[in-house]
Amino acid sequence: MGHAEGVRSRFRWGARMKGRTTSMRGPKVLSVMIAMMFAASAVAVVFTAANADDKAFTDGTLGEGGDVLNKLNFGGAGVDIFRDVIKVPGGFVAVGCSDTSSFGDPDSDWVTPNGAITGHGQTDAIIVKFTENWTVEWKTHFGGVGYDEFNSVTMVTTSPVAGTNANADGYMLVAVGYSDTSSFGTGSWSQYPDMEGYGGTDAIIVAFNEKNGSVEAAWNFGGAGNDEFYGVAVSKEGNVCAVGYSGSASFGTGSWLNEDWGVAAGHGGTDAIMAVYTDGALAYARNFGRTGGDAFFGVAAFDDGTDEFFFAVGYSESNSFGTGDWKTTTGYGGKDAIIVGYLDGEVYAALNFGGSGDDEFRGVGVGESGDVFAVGWSGQGSFGNGSWGPDKEWGVTAGHGNNDAIIAAFRGKVDGGAEVIGAAHFGGAGNDLFFGVTVSPEGSIVAVGCSGADSFASGDWDDVAGNGDADAIAVGYSEGEFVGAMNFGGSGIDYFLGAAILPNGNVLVAGYSGSSSFGNGDWAGVEGKGGLDAIVVMFDTGMQTSGSTAGNDFPVVYVAIAAVGVIALLGIAYVFVLKKP
After folding, report:
1. Which of 325, 274, 311 is nearest to 557 (CA)?
2. Matching CATH number, 14-40+62-569, of 1.10.3720.10, 2.130.10.10, 3.40.50.300, 2.60.40.420
């Protein structure tokens, strides 16, 4: 498993796991894989290419839908970003960050009837609940004098706070991200005077009351280095799993000193990490990787009625392979996209995906059948070799541009482990990236991200004109078939970072738009607020999903995304703080 020997003892779940008392165990094989999360069918899902003869998609069309049904921008004079969005009873919730210049402005969205709201520090983590009528029901900013940001959010139907009830409706909101060490003891963290920061940045997990946005509980995680949570998911049993990374200096200190599962030394520059919280307490944490840099960016949960699974995605650098957790695996290129499956806290399957270039997964979702879908991007040098080689049914000789957006499907094998059952790439001559994905119970998939200006009028965008420097994009698949794609934005930069598919087939997406995008394109008639505005958009996919459209329905898939250095990939000069590994 790559953990320091003799450091931790076996953690026991106790009654939380469906009434069982069972010790942690290593990878299962036949008995689990037959009854586990992945579908039992051996039929491969081979995604059809977007540029197939029958694609017939045009600007603004996704399936028979593609119409923008509603949109909003949120923020102040500075930088405001939404990184994730989920549907909740009576509306939807988005999380992200706002910088200091967005606060204190009476013309911004950070106002109350009593006047402008003052921010805590350099950037504040933010969570906003909107009603079904797209008005703000409540908004909360969280942090201290340093940098604080939320990357992902989920809804917990059992209380994450030991000894308390969730609320009258039986659920809370749980957001994850990071806080600078300087933030502790100040601002929102002053509620927890005994909580000190461990290192440069600490991973954080915060529970909010759904009714009014008040903070119910907050925890930090990490050590002497830099630590961050990027993604969060909750199992049916109410166990909350957060994933991200820890720097090498964090191990053997802080949270990693736990006598049961602590880790004395990390594997490399950064280790991918997962931490599980049960009844308001940290149950255990795991690190994954080896000598190079390893990180998780997204996580999804699945329960087969007997066991609990978490699927984490991210990347591992080339020098991580051949040792540690990758000791029997050879890497493909500079960075490989990775997916790691955890069964009751232990790795049962780990796969790398990519070619000789750089490949990363940033978002993950799982359908009702248990098939897992990961999205991200592959570099130009990755096509025609490795996972994209001609020996694969989905093999691709050459990519479209510098980076192509990618989607890959995974399924368990009856003889143990898991395998890739299909993959597709999407884009044009420039840079095309997927950050988030949402999956309906039936397996309808919408991946979201961005395409650079030079991707349009080429490749899969051959009949589509872009709006600006970078357009937000959404691409749909159903049962492995390409459905369609749409682009959104104005003359500046526009990104979709997170998504949630609704029971009626509509999709909520969250992200940001630059100031020059407003007043033109899809933002015609809308005035921007600052340097970057947080945005939420809802559009019609034309794809059918099961379930009622009632306000109490919400997606069963929890998606995590992160914007990490992608402005540089697109060649756009825009400066704002994104503290990532």
Report:
1. 311
2. 2.130.10.10
